[in-house]
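Consider the tokenized backbone below.
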């Protein structure tokens, strides 16, 4: 089983609330696009494109964008944001594109949810032109992310005793993403951290918005809404 069967359902369960979450990642999108310095009209594929905010920002920079995601409801929003873009649905481990199609492939907080991250990274490499760029973003080291406390509680609801280093933090251990990238045939060039503060106007807003994320939706499926939200 690839990524889409489970992740598509989870991330598509509360799209309206997710739209209020997505802007918190804007500093990350800007930092990556600034680092890439791609010429105008370069072809870019965003893996795990979600509701398409990163794609729309890339298009504003003059890039020709395509998107790929597991969630049909997310893709519907992305298509409304970036009309005419080629946006497809499926597994990160089996991309429906020819070799060397894109000058750049980006993936923002998606590869860590793949059933096989190395296969997903290998597919990203395959569809990138020789000499092109692959930019992968994942959560930072666990002890630097305040969200670790929330995610630890959520992980315990899904699988008591399981490590909360799985899921969102699956690639956050120092050196792990780089090692997987090498296993997939990629050559790591640079790595860095970007601050992306999540600021909410109230506790109710924080709960509503964060509950739209896939890991929390999984906890709701397993333990129920009341146990998860409380």
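A designed sequence for it:
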């Amino acid at each position: 089983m690839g990524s889409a069967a489970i992740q598509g359902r989870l991330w598509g369960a509360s799209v309206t609330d997710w739209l209020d979450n997505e802007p918190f990642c804007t500093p990350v999108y800007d930092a990556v696009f600034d680092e890439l310095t791609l010429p105008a009209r370069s072809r870019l594929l965003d893996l795990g494109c979600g509701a398409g905010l990163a794609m729309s920002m890339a298009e504003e920079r003059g890039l020709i964008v395509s998107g790929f995601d597991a969630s049909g409801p997310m893709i519907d929003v992305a298509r409304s944001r970036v009309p005419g873009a080629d946006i497809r649905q499926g597994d990160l481990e089996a991309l429906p594109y020819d070799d060397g199609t894109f000058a750049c492939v980006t993936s923002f907080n998606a590869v860590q949810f793949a059933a096989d991250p190395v296969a997903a990274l290998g597919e990203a490499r395959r569809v990138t032109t020789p000499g092109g760029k692959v930019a992968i973003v994942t959560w930072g080291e666990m002890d630097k992310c305040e969200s670790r406390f929330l995610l630890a509680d959520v992980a315990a609801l899904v699988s008591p005793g399981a490590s909360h280093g799985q899921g969102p933090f699956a690639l956050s251990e120092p050196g792990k993403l780089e090692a997987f990238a090498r296993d997939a045939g990629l050559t790591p060039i640079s790595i860095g951290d970007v601050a992306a503060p999540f600021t909410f106007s109230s506790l109710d807003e924080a709960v509503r918005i964060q509950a739209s994320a896939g890991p929390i939706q999984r906890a709701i499926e397993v333990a129920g809404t009341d146990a998860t939200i409380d």
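The beta strands are 43-47, 64-69, 86-89, 102-108, 128-137.
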